[in-house]
Amino acid sequence: MLYGAGLAGIAELCLIVYCFLDVIRTPPRHVRNLPKPVWLILCFIPPILGPLSWLLFGRPPNGAGNLPYKGNVGSFPEYERPGRAVAQNPDDDEAFLRQLRERAEEQRRRASEQARRIRDEEQPPPV
User: Fold this and answer.
1) What distance lies between CA 127 and its chain's CA centroid?
2) Which of 53, 31, 56 is nearest to 44 (CA)?
3) How far apart are CA 74 and CA 68, in angstroms?
4) Is 21 in contact with 59 (CB distance < 8 Å)?
5) In the predicted model, what is the mean pLDDT of residues 13-36?
6) What is the per-residue pLDDT across 42-64, written as a single tens digit (0 to 9) for each?
7) Which of 3, 40, 47, 67 has a CA positioned 20 to 30 A from the CA of residue 27?
8) Residue 106: how many CA atoms within 13 Å on its side-chain side?
């Protein structure tokens, strides 16, 4: 009987500590129903009801506010997404090189047109 009460006390303490740390780690904009300082107090005052109410009513849905990535709402950041294709050597990508050549050619064409326009504007009209 004494061991059961000791285990219940340890479980209660673990629940309180977990919920307290969870409230601290959650960004204020993700906390639901009450302000963050109120949830911090509620984790300690009613020993079992406070932490349980945090888990049920205050915590962000799916724990979205506690992800280690800043500003993340439940998905991986773009460059850490599982299965993302790793960048290859650009010299091996023919489509990429073709796109670069087309872009360079377009820039050369625009530059020559602009130079021609400037040259035509600078020349006086024939008399």
Assistant:
1) 68
2) 53
3) 10
4) no
5) 87
6) 888 877 888 888 888 888 876 55
7) 47
8) 6
Task: Cite the DSSP H helix spans in the chain.
Answer: 2-25, 36-42, 49-53, 94-122
**Residue 33's closest CA among 56, 57, 9?**
57
What's the Cα-to-Cα distance from 21 to each of 13, 26, 66, 87, rounded to whole Å? Answer: 12, 9, 10, 39
Question: Which amino acid would we find at residue 124?
Answer: P
Q: Which of 45-49, 87-91, 96-100, 101-105 has the lowest mean pLDDT?
A: 87-91
Give the position of tokens 């303490």: 13
Q: What is the pTM of this model?
A: 0.47
Q: Check: CB of residue 77 under 8 Å from CB of residue 69.
A: yes
Alpha carbon of 82 to those of 37, 70, 76, 77, 79: distances in Å?
A: 36, 18, 8, 10, 9
Which residue in this structure is represented by tokens 């998905």?
A: 75
Closest CA to 30 of 14, 52, 51, 54: 54
Residues 6 or more apart whose CB falls under 8 angstroms from that of 23 comprise: 31, 36, 39, 40, 43, 54, 58
- In the numeric block, the tokens 């872009």 are attached to 103
Neighbours of 88 (CB within 10 A): 9
Q: What is the mean pLDDT of residues 84-107?
A: 81
